[in-house]
Amino acid sequence: MRAGDIAINLPTVRPSDPVAKAVRLMVVNRLPGLIVVDTADRPVAVLPGTQVLRLVIPGSYQNDPTLVRTIDEVHADLFWQEPGSLTVGDCLPDGAVSPATVTPDATLLEIAILMARKHSPLLAVVDRARVLRGAITLERLLTSLAVTGPGD
Questions:
Q1: What is the rounded distance in angstroms from the CA atom of residue 9 to the CA atom of residue 132?
Q2: Mean pLDDT throughout 38-56?
Q3: Alpha helices in the chain (DSSP H)
Q4: What gap in Å lies between CA 74 and CA 77, rounded to an integer?
Q5: How far is CA 42 from CA 20, 75, 104, 123, in A?
Q6: Which of 16, 34, 99, 104 is deepest in the core (most CB within 10 A)?
Q7: How do residues 71-101 score in pLDDT, each as one tens digit?
């Protein structure tokens, strides 16, 4: 099996899109993150859901987790509803490295090694012009590995 065989079409976002849109896409599609593309549909970053969480959790609570115990349950459940005017670009770390990409002919082993090395649960599958052609999630890779046995 190759990347082109297991790649799926996933929604993408642009740096100027609101964070709220990204969160909705992740939730509705049950994704660990999203691929951020430019206007030519070339991947520029992977936006992990954990990065969005870091931005919507107030910094004081991140710096001192014991403060969380001072917030009642009702208010604790509302923190994520305040992304305000944050954009996807705001969620990307400064100096973000280019996203993990593979070509359609990459093997499952190559995909697994890249995911593990980059700590990325999502890879972009790109053509020779680096235009996005699909994506591979960690779940998709593990499922493919599980159903592929010797001689398959």
A1: 9
A2: 83
A3: 3-6, 19-29, 49-56, 59-63, 73-76, 88-91, 108-118, 138-147
A4: 5
A5: 22, 39, 15, 13
A6: 34
A7: 777 766 666 555 567 888 887 777 666 788 9
Distance CA 104, CA 133 (A): 8
Contact between 58 and 83 under an 8 Å Cβ cutoff? The reply is no
Six-digit token pair at 73? 């349950």
**Count of alpha carbons within 13 angstroms of residue 116, beta-carbon side:** 8
Average pLDDT (131-139) is: 94
- The Cα–Cα gap between 136 and 142 comes to 10
The per-residue b/e assignment along 108-118, b for 16 or more CB within 10 angstroms, e otherwise, is beebbebbeee
Pick from 93, 86, 12, 21: nearest CA to 51: 93
Q: Is 3-148 in CATH node 3.40.640.10?
A: no
Distance CA 77, CA 2 (A): 42
